[in-house]
Design brief:
It is built from 7 helices and 8 strands; from the N terminus they run αβββαβαβαβαβαβα. The protein is of the alpha/beta class.
Length: 250
């Protein structure tokens, strides 16, 4: 119970800090109001997109040429990603965090999670991104891995945080088909999630230059990128930043 409370407190502090005291922008006329549960930084734009009956809502931060899709973990929504999305936008990236169907403001229709990730990538391109990176946490990590082989043009890179091998998508089938660099990261003490990271990394072609990074923690998914909590998590943040700088600079 103490651990759950700590996670909630850390996330709440991050969300509170990302707004900088500015009021959240009003949703656009075509938006679904994604992120209504958290304070959004000034300049955040609403996004609405989807095919195959999917009606997906998200938020876009930044205006850079390199776009990053952020896919949340189970039980979450765009608010999980707002602090990190704000950091990425400040570095020059164009970032889209979206709600999977059945979470937040989105409905999925007949679209699978990987298909929804592909729709988000296209929405970022339509918004002006000229290249795409996929980052997903837990359920979202599985989804971005499963989506990546089918997206054209191919993503520059993929970051998978604490992804199960199978969760509403099959990353085991996708890993051998990946052609871009992938960073598999997980908490070393997450048991099955660390095992999945090892397995998926082993299945990924060596020619991609993919990496495995296990952090000495049991923190999970998006929480691996929490700032100012421990040196282990700071190392995870630094690793992701270095990976992006190498393979998908802003």
């Amino acid at each position: 119970m103490r651990r759950i409370a700590l996670l909630a407190a850390v996330l709440a502090l991050g969300l509170a800090g990302c707004g900088g005291g500015d009021p959240a922008p009003a949703p656009s006329p075509t938006g679904l109001g994604a992120g209504g549960e958290c304070e959004l930084p000034a300049g955040t734009r609403q996004a609405r997109f989807g095919t195959d009956g999917a009606d997906l809502g998200g938020v876009i931060l930044g205006t850079g040429g390199t776009g990053i899709v952020l896919a949340h973990q189970n039980g979450g929504n765009v608010c999980q990603w707002v602090p990190y999305a704000t950091e990425l936008a400040a570095k020059g990236y164009r970032v889209l965090a979206f709600d999977f169907g059945g979470f937040g403001v989105s409905t999925s229709g007949s679209a699978t999670n990987p298909q929804q990730v592909a729709m988000a990538a296209q929405a970022l391109r339509d918004d002006g991104a000229t290249a795409i990176v996929l980052i997903g946490a837990s359920m979202g990590g599985t989804a971005v891995l499963a989506a990546a082989p089918a997206i054209a043009p191919a993503p520059l890179a993929v970051v998978s945080l604490s992804a199960p091998s199978v969760f509403s998508a099959n990353a085991l089938d996708a890993a051998p088909k990946l052609t871009m660099p992938v960073l598999y990261a997980a908490g070393e003490f997450e048991s099955s999630f660390a095992d999945s990271a090892r397995e998926l990394h082993a299945l990924t072609p060596k020619s991609t230059g993919s990496e495995l990074f296990l952090v000495p923690t049991d923190w999970h998914g998006v929480f691996l990128l929490t700032s100012g909590v421990s040196s282990a998590l700071d190392k995870a943040r630094d690793k992701v930043a270095a990976f992006l700088a190498m393979h998908a600079p802003a």
